[in-house]
Write a structure and sequence with these properties.
The protein is α/β, with parallel strands linked by helices. It has a single domain, classed as Vaccinia Virus protein VP39 (Rossmann fold, 3-Layer(aba) Sandwich). About 45% of the residues lie in helices and about 25% in strands. The chain has 10 helices and 8 strands. Strands 1, 2, 3, 4, 5, 6, 7 and 8 form an 8-stranded mixed β-sheet that branches. The chain is globular. Bound molecules: S-adenosylmethionine (SAM). The site of S-adenosylmethionine has 21 residues, from helix 1, helix 3 and helix 5. S-adenosylmethionine (SAM) binds next to helix 1, helix 3 and helix 5.
């Protein structure tokens, strides 16, 4: 099990969908052959497949959480769902025939070594890695504890999530370097969440809960985190930075 709940993934899906960089998404779709086969790593319930909505695609969705995979199979019955621990089974998974490899909100969880393994095993296939957290976090109105909370959260982001010490906010740049070293041409584009209370209040509350809990685990004072969290219940807006990446060989 991964610790990513069905509820959290469902809550973030609409915000993710809005945030994906439209031109990069279009460039990825244009680069695919007809009736492509795609492997989605850390698929959760299959939000990447739903967001890309590719005609005649053959999706292979892979994750180590059986609950999320079961939901993916229910939501996208035509996709293949494969249970795998990508920390150990990455090369086996990527030895499958596929035209492209996708991932969303995964590359901040993994380690630099794992990314180097990934880039080698990608073997020239198109890579589309969306929504990698980049460390940007801005809440409105501002609160005196914003900086302390953001620093503690980023420290927590770099803890081992099962793949070795996590790259956290450096995920997209580490992935860029690793893919370029394997001969890829890489394009990065911003894909921030732009949340506002009226539309995204439930997601903002869940996000603030998660950020505060992670900050406390990373050493932030409980009272400071609680004060910040209380204020965040009334936040009007929040921006969370992400990067989307498209990599093609040559
Ligand atoms: C932030 S969620 C993103 C899920 C999905 N891509 C999305 O955008 O909704 C990260 C995903 O990585 C999966 N994951 C984490 N560690 C994993 C591992 N060692 N092997 C396979 N999947 C893993 C989690 O189960 C979760 O579904």
């Amino acid at each position: 099990m991964s610790g990513f709940s069905l509820n959290w993934l469902a809550l973030r899906e609409a915000a993710d969908d809005r945030a994906r960089h439209a031109d990069l998404r279009r460039a990825f779709l244009d680069a695919l052959p007809p009736s492509p086969t795609l492997i989605d790593l850390g698929s959760g319930t299959g939000s990447t497949a739903r967001a890309l909505d590719i005609t005649d695609a053959r999706w292979i969705l892979t994750d180590n959480d059986p609950v999320l995979l079961k939901e993916a199979a229910r939501l996208i019955p035509e996709a293949a769902t494969l249970h795998a621990d990508l920390a150990t089974d990455l090369e086996t998974m990527l030895s499958r025939q596929a035209d492209a490899i996708t991932a969303s909100a995964l590359f901040d969880l993994v380690s630099e070594d794992w990314i180097a393994r990934f880039a080698r095993a990608a073997q020239g296939r198109i890579v589309y890695a969306a929504l990698t957290y980049d460390g940007g976090e801005a809440w409105e109105p501002a609160h005196p504890a914003d900086l302390a909370i953001a620093r503690a959260f980023d420290t927590h982001q770099q803890r081992d999530k099962g793949f070795g010490p996590a790259v956290g906010p450096m995920g997209a740049s580490v992935l860029t370097r690793a893919l370029e070293a394997e001969g890829y041409t890489v394009t990065l584009a911003p894909s921030p969440w732009r949340l506002d209370q009226a539309r995204d209040g439930t997601l903002m509350t869940a996000l603030a809960d998660g950020v505060a809990a992670a900050a406390v685990e990373a050493g932030c004072e409980q009272t400071e985190a609680q004060d910040w969290l209380d204020a965040r219940r009334n936040a009007s807006r929040c921006t969370i930075g992400h990067l989307d990446l498209l990599a093609v060989q040559g």
